[in-house]
Amino acid sequence: MSIPQSLQVLTTIRDFIRWGTSEFLRNELTFGHGFASAFDEARYLSLHALALPYDWPDDYLDTVLTPPEREQVIDILRLRVNSRQPAAYITRESWFCGLKFYVDELDALEVTRTNLELHDLVEAVTLYESDLFDSIPVQQFDVIVCNPPYVDAADMAQLSDEFRYEPEIGLAAGNDGLLLVDRILARAGEFLSDHGVLFVEVGNTREAMESTFDFLPMTWVEFEFGGGGVCCIGAQDLKQQQPAIMAIAS
Q1: Where along the chain do the CATH 3.40.50.150 domains lie?
Q2: pTM of the shown model
Q3: Residues 216-226: pLDDT tens digits?
């Protein structure tokens, strides 16, 4: 990619952060995940494209970039997109450990297969078409990572247009946002080894989850670059509390 004539004047990291911020605001992007503002998003993406940390000292933001670096930053700012394919990313990042992965995707199996082929990970991942655990053979996993629909009715009614490009089935989760989380908690213990853990993302439904399952120990993950709504629950706690969970889920 050659640098467009209109962007030739952009040479420093600071230039691209400013330009990216303007582009995001001009296109009325919604910042519902990760960073909460156009500036923070542009700063992170610009520095990420250069393999630099988000807290890179401001004194270095006036560093002049090489033409290939400028192209790379332009690319990543223009292709600011959300991915719904955690399997390929998690597997790629952990492949060196020799781990095996199993993926349950109701509406994205074909895209997942394509991504796995692109990253040469077909042999590392087993795909199931299943409604949560229903069609997955009972077996013992050390880690289950789950990002189910968790948007409650109130938040669904207020979603911006950008989110409505997503199929509603991938977002809506009943009045309290726990429609699917209830079912996941009810059966996850069957599929976890004794030392296993469940990671589940519930976003803004955290308060409802803590209230509904106040008897269940949860550890909430703190992320380096902000964000939240992801908790970790141990297998032993899920198994011990299964009767109480089932009473809520039924």
Answers
A1: 130-249
A2: 0.64
A3: 999 999 876 56
